[in-house]
């Protein structure tokens, strides 16, 4: 029997005002209903924003180190419940247990990092150009933060956004992805247990039209943080501009791994398998393109195809499974459409390409790890984000050509190069157009204390994670204290 879950609004657990609900199902076994959740709408969002607005004055006056102390307790509780959270996450979104444990651990790491940032809300003090005058900047909370998160990292990404929002003194209305509402509900329960005041944190389940749009357009929401597709991000940017909200967008990617002729091929093979087929390719940092130097192209392709064909598909809760299902039927259809596009464009399908439905996998949305060779830079499978286990391989003749091919993308999130030439490594750091570059590592592997984000159509310039995200969730106030006892006119009396 599945559990029935609720929204958290105005300090209480409540149904959607309409009484409507939706089911959350296991993508590895679509017959299994994980839970039933409120299918909310604009009135629910309005109630949640009202709650957050009412709580703001008291929360903003809570000392930042005290807000941080609550998040340290959140980390402790998450650590105690790590295995339970990971198993439920695998049930609702499919990736294997090793990965969901990592997802929870990233949330734990982010909690402890955020707790210490509560003691480091740095401003600046600088000399005044006038005598007996003091100049400084301080950082203040902004108000109500609307948080909209995706399903592929249902614990890590909400923690990236909600922890800094809270430690900076903002109140939160949280709209999680409707494919992963259980992890979100568990996360909110933990935050409340740790001591976040009930009205400060509001959870509203539901879809983009019912919850997302009313949240983005609400005049009392001061900032929006969104992770998802570039198309939806552009729409949010337009809608939010009507009320001049601050907006952080973390959007699509078409990440590439370069393997040079002097690279460690065994290491590069491990990297591309993990980057392309981990999370079934459903990461914004997934390795979607592989750029091979012509001198090692044929040798590496032989190694890659052989290894990819050995990957074991299955329910992520089973220890032998290496690749879980896609998130839902629509995503499985999308992957199949791109396989057909690749074939029609003249790319060579060297392995995979099919829906996988053998044995227990018949009940879920599985797809074979798929590799295309003889891909050219202008093919759609080399340009468009697929969000599935499909890897496009391109051949190049030099470092310069490799970088040119890698940069030939509307996106610029993550990137990778395998080379044993230290000079090439430093050139790549400089030349590659991406927010993240790995040297001798795959395109995936973010760490909680480092900025995360991209360039071009991957976002709008803000960063998640690390120290930079705290600047997004605060307003800078410039303060002058004149203790001269007389009117002093800057730029006039001193020149």
Care to describe what's here?
- The chain is of the alpha/beta class.
- The protein has two domains: 3-251 and 459-478, Aldehyde Dehydrogenase, Chain A, domain 1, CATH 3.40.605.10; 255-439, 3-Layer(aba) Sandwich (Aldehyde Dehydrogenase, Chain A, domain 2).
- It contains 15 helices and 24 strands.
- It has a seven-stranded mixed beta sheet with strand order 15-18-19-14-13-21-22, with helices on both faces. Strands 10-9-8-11-12 form a five-stranded parallel beta sheet, with helices on both faces.
- Strand 9 (171-175), helix 6 (181-194) and strand 10 (201-203) form a beta-alpha-beta unit.
- Helix 1 (42-60) packs across helix 7, helix 2 crosses helix 6 and helix 4 (97-117) packs parallel to helix 5.
- The longest helix has 21 residues, at 97-117.
- It is globular, with a radius of gyration of 24 Å.
- It starts with a strand and ends in a 13-residue tail after the last strand.
How would you sum up this structure in a few lines?
With 495 residues, the protein is α/β, with parallel strands linked by helices. It has helices at residues 42-60, 64-80, 82-93, 97-117, 156-167, 181-194, 208-217, 230-241, 265-277, 294-309, 329-345, 380-383, 399-407, 422-431, 469-472, and strands spanning 3-4, 7-9, 12-14, 21-26, 29-38, 124-127, 133-141, 144-148, 171-175, 201-203, 223-227, 246-250, 255-259, 287-293, 348-351, 355-356, 366-367, 370-373, 390-396, 411-412, 414-418, 436-439, 455-456, 474-482.
